[in-house]
Give the backbone structure.
Amino acid sequence: MTINWAGLGAVFLVALVASVLFVGLFSVGIASWTRRGEAAVNNVLAIVCFVLCAGIIGYGIFAIAHK
Amino acid sequence: MDISLLVIVVIVTALAFDFTNGFHDTANAMATSIATGALSPRVAVGVSAVFNLVGAFLSVQVAKTISSGIVDDTKINAAIIFGGLVGAIVWNLLTWLLGLPSSSSHALFGGLIGASWIAAGSGAVHFETVLEKIIVPAIASPIIAGVVATAATFLAYKLTAKSEKTERAKGFKAGQILSASMVSLAHGTNDAQKTMGVITLTLVTAGALPSGSNPPLLVILGAGLAISLGTFLGGWRIIRTLGKGLTEIETPQGFAAEASATATILASSQVGFALSTTHVATGAIIGSGVGKRLSEVRWGVAGRMAIAWLFTLPAAAIVGAIAGRTAALGTAGTVIVALAAVAIGVGAYLLSRRQPVSAGNVNELPSTTTPATASA
């Protein structure tokens, strides 16, 4: 029997990077959205983060449909 | 025996399995969103049902390789498929009654393995493939999802540490609607397809479709609707166990758990692992409990789930073997198995009425069900 270690490792790495990136971006977005002070800068940063998150979701749907 | 009767019975049974698959697995996508109040229970199961249906139409890759080389496709017949489905349904109903999330995929594979083994000998089951494609991913996937969710949860709290608490909760609540929908979508593409595959395989064996066919539109629609209807009814017992039983979940944890579960499911379907949404979702929820400092994971509940996972495949295999063997006796055998399956379904429903869990009490702590599950 052969265990597909490379496959398992790839799943782990891809899942880790994707999740950390997605959750990290969303968290930064929320942090800057709720931060007091320079509203314009904070809001732009937050919106950039949320747009990037939407991009990751879009890629996820693309990946489902084209596997 | 009349082939067309058996084929019809198999198709109906496949749709019934798909239905149990739906309400068994609603929890995977929606348990944390319901627990945190990101979505009201009724809205949550509605959203999940819609995304399951959409997911069913997105891809047919999984449906093409239903048995994934686990059993010898050339030795399979309608009676074996029927037996396997009955084994899977019975196991799904029993674990639902106990509020235990267990893998519907494992139940289906177990049922097929048992039925094939008894009908066509151990040579019809590729045990090495079973180990490689089912057992190894079953152990690895919850651990992977758990570690990923731990990291994601830790990060979510770290990065938003300075934010005002209620503002933060509101933000992640909105995020959870998205992340839960993604889990449902991934679930629809994975699980609805298994039923499509079973029905298509049955139609091919009966000569109604040429070998190697894609599932016809009507089959895709039927399977998608069956799983969505099951999802919409909501497996409240399992939702409560996952959402409230394992750990107290806040919105950042729910968001991180759902995002990690989706990423793990998508990554592994790209690599070709037939993993279970249930194992991944459970691992991610436990991970989100570990990732938040000072939050408590009820390892006893987690352990009871792990035991249910261990038994899923062999238990479904035994029921599948008995059902398949009986169905192979002819029309009378098929009718007996079908009646027995219906009786078990009705029995499970009646037993569930004694301690009902519904949209109304899904978020109350599962202390009332503890005696029932502990005695199992």
In short: DSSP finds 14 helices and no strands in chain B. Residues 368-376 of chain B have pLDDT under 50 and may be disordered. Chain B has one domain: 3-374.
